[in-house]
Amino acid sequence: MIAAGVLPVLAALGYLLLRAQAPGRDHALERDEQAYQKWVNGFAAGLGDRPAVVILEPDALAQLNSCLDNAQRQARPRMLSHAVKTLQTSSDQVYLDAGHSNWVPAGQMAARLRAADVAQADGFALNVANYDTTDREIGYATALNRELGMAKRFVVDTSRNGKGSAGGPAHPAAGPISRALPGAGSISRALPGAGGRALASQLFLDPDAQAANWVRAHPGDPRAPEIGQHIANQPAAQWFGAWSGDITAAVSGYTIAASREHKVPVLVAYDIPQLNCGGRSTPGARPWCNPPGRQLGSAPQVLDNRGDMGLWIKAPGESDGDCGAGAGTQPGQFSPRLATELITGRS
């Protein structure tokens, strides 16, 4: 028979033993949080007081239960909350990524959004680098707002959703292979007078985007005029992550270039620790990875009188990786073949 009071002592000893066996894990997680906070603070410093739209951490909430341990699952919303509170200002709009309609049920995603303090952000972003139709994503946004119990604005990535998903549940590509755009609400603040198709004229069109560079470098290519007209002349967002080097300098340079043209830049913050648990999912034949026969969606425009917007978050023509219609390409590499297929809707 165990004496009274022994069980609590044994439980406490067991807990301390487990902690002693893996002290590095706790320290590593703490270092991850500190490093991410430092990165976010550097991102905010780069924004300064210049108006900008920020899409915050695609996939981070949707992948919350993928391969993280319990401590990591608790830490990620804390990190995102810090990012929301740091980046959301009177001049900047933050949209916290909420995956897409084929991924996480609305009730579960709403709980994750709340934990990451979406209430303090302008809203949430949907369909980033994915293919679901705009109508389907608007329906998902409506369900999310119902579950949240508040009316948050949202943005939908329309860059590749002209024909919808290629079939079956789709998952966004892993790794830094996309680009992102804004959502609504403070549209009157950051995008004065924007409405309908006028939205694109308010957004920063990066002259050094990969599509624009390719068109300039290949004036004799028969594909160049169409790519220039249909893709290079539409604003798409710029992604920032570990590959960006000095994050303050990188973000500052981009937003200053936009400010000189009196335009609003759209940036994606993409550096959450342990996304995909530090690796990349195998491309294989996954339906999200350069599926053939997809098509450009609508150009950036306001979707409704609330200011919710359809925007080009993924830059069309930039590959998801060595897979599908992009066989032989690298993640993020511009492919004129992929670009042309998106323009024509034919593989």
Task: Kindly list the characteristics that best describe this protein.
single chain, alpha/beta, eight-stranded mixed sheet, 11 helices, globular
Task: Give the topology.
Blueprint: H1 6-21, H2 23-47, E1 52-56, H3 70-87, E2 92-97, H4 106-115, E3 123-126, H5 134-148, E4 153-157, H6 187-190, H7 199-202, H8 210-217, H9 224-232, E5 238-240, H10 247-260, E6 266-269, E7 301-302, E8 309-311, H11 336-344
Parallel strand pairs: 1-2, 1-6, 2-3, 3-4, 4-8, 5-6
Antiparallel strand pairs: 7-8
Helix pairs in contact: 2-3, 2-10, 4-5, 8-9, 9-11
Largest sheet, strands/sense/barrel: 8 strands, mixed
Rounded to the nearest angstrom, the radius of gyration is 21 Å
CATH homologous superfamily identity:
1, 4-beta cellobiohydrolase
Percent helix among the residues?
Answer: 25-40%
Biggest sheet, spatial arrangement of strands:
5-6-1-2-3-4-8-7
CATH fold call: TIM Barrel
Brief description of this entry?
The chain has 347 residues and is of the alpha/beta class.
Could you explain how this protein is built, in words?
There is one protein chain. With 347 residues, this protein is α/β, with parallel strands linked by helices. It has a single domain, classed as TIM Barrel (Alpha-Beta Barrel), CATH 3.20.20. Helices cover 38% and strands 9% of the residues. It has 11 helices and 8 strands. The chain has helices spanning 6-21, 23-47, 70-87, 106-115, 134-148, 187-190, 199-202, 210-217, 224-232, 247-260, 336-344; strands at 52-56, 92-97, 123-126, 153-157, 238-240, 266-269, 301-302, 309-311. An 8-stranded mixed beta sheet has the order 5-6-1-2-3-4-8-7, covered by helices on one side. A hairpin with a 6-residue loop joins strand 7 (301-302) and strand 8 (309-311). It starts with 5 loop residues before the first helix and ends with a helix.
